[in-house]
Amino acid sequence: MKKMSYISSNLQDSITLAISAKAKKMKSEGKDVISFSVGEPDFPTPNFIREAAKEFIDQGKIGYTAATGTPELKEEIIKKLKRDNNLDYKPGQIVVTTGAKQALANAIYALTNPGDEIIIIAPYWVTYPSLVEICGGKSVVVESTESDDFKINAKQLEEAITDKTKAVIINTPSNPCGGVYSEKELREIADVVKKHDLYVISDEIYEKLTYDNEKHYSIAEIDEDMYNRTIVINGYSKAYAMTGWRIGYSASNIEIASAMGKAQSHVTGNVNAISQHAGAVALAGSEDELNESILEFSERRDLMYDLVNKIKGISCRKPKGAFYIMVNISKIKDTTIAGVRINNSMTFANLLLENSYVAVVPGIGFGNDDFIRLSYATNKENIIEGLKRIENLLSNN
Ligand code: PLP
After folding, report:
1. Which residue minimizes the CA distance to atom 3 of ligand 1?
2. CA-to-CA distance for 301 and 134, rounded, in angstroms?
């Protein structure tokens, strides 16, 4: 048989999903696994959203909608972008997508010609490089450091720019690091973006999850030029605990939105009508449950941060957003633990899972092998027990 396409043969499996799958399998075999590998809230979708979806199903009118989203939902998204981000959009600038993931895929597809470079900041969310690859582009990775709270500055960005650079992906608050860019930092980055005539793909899916009075700021808010250059990506998975509903959206200039909408109309068509209705109700409704979740996440973050830093050999900084902590394991690399030589983050993650029944994500999946990522989208009892197991493993060494 003829060979499959070069791009499809080279795509990597998501390490996050691989670890979650292994942990799930061990759980199904009766093993008491504690998972710090999940990327979704452990809360249910708020009740008023579920009720609205049930009513919508009972009305029975579940047909195709416009490929880029229903007028009802677009209106709520436009109100939200004005309310939270002070951004003005018209319906033609909004594309409702199957999760923020599809919005990212649409954006990269709309901007990238073969060989175009897209700048990605490491540690990065696993999907970015693969999406760039699928679209025939080239990822250029800029390393951030733990001491800078995993954020890059304008100078670092400028050094990575070549005449092939098309766009930079900024994820704030970030997965996996929890970094939140300030308005000042984004203004400095925006100056470089404008100077080199780039686009920004601004992944704001964790917008609502910030702590310690930290406020999310969108780079599109800076001025009209940045507004035109930025594709804002957002969704419901993290803030509204709606991962399985598969709904997100983008907001951009009309030309990009039309290109994204056209592509989507051929690939998937509209997001399912039930989720679109639920999405409109979510944005129009109360944020009480969301605010309770933010409080709970913030307490869990503090707990996890304290416990990690009590364990010999590992450490972490306190992130300001999302629900992940990057734990520095560089001191235990190249040591032997429970008879296993820890060559890299993958060996350590495997040892933790197989020996201590704790699932974590190795940093190599995010482009930095000196870390593992712990998610605190799990209850406090699990956080205490999971970190006790990690402590036992390391102190018996
Ligand atoms: N962007 C980041 C940084 C994420 O972590 C995720 C999900 O984990 C997504 C986008 C995709 O979210 P969705 O479930 O809306 O597709």
Report:
1. 175
2. 35
Say what the pLDDT of residue 221 is. 98
CA distances to 4, 8, 141 from 1, rounded to whole Å, are 9, 16, 36
Q: How many angstroms separate the alpha carbon of residue 100 from the centre of ligand 1?
A: 6
pLDDT score of 326: 98
Q: Compute the distance between CA of residue 68 and CA of residue 103 in angstroms, rounded to an integer.
A: 11
Q: How far is CA 370 from the centre of its chain?
A: 20
Return all residues near 53 (Cβ < 8 A) that are at least 6 apart: 274, 275, 277, 278, 281
Instruction: Give the residue whose CA is nearest to atom 12 of ligand 1.
Output: 100
Say yes or no: CB of residue 377 within 6 Å of ligand 1: no
CB 41 near ligand 1, within 6 Å:
no
170: DSSP letter: E
Q: How far is CA 393 from CA 306, 311, 377, 390, in A?
A: 18, 10, 23, 5
Q: From the CB of 248, is ligand 1 less than 6 Å away?
A: yes
- For 101, the 3-state DSSP assignment is helix
- Which residues, given as ranges, of the chain have pLDDT below 50? none
CA of residue 205 to ligand 1 center, whole Å: 6
Share of the chain above pLDDT 70, in %: 100
Backbone angles phi, psi at 94, to 5 degrees: -105, 135
User: Which of 119-147 are b and which e, b meaning 16 or more Cβ less than 10 Å from the residue's Cβ?
Assistant: bbbbbbbbbbbbbbbbbebbbbebebebe
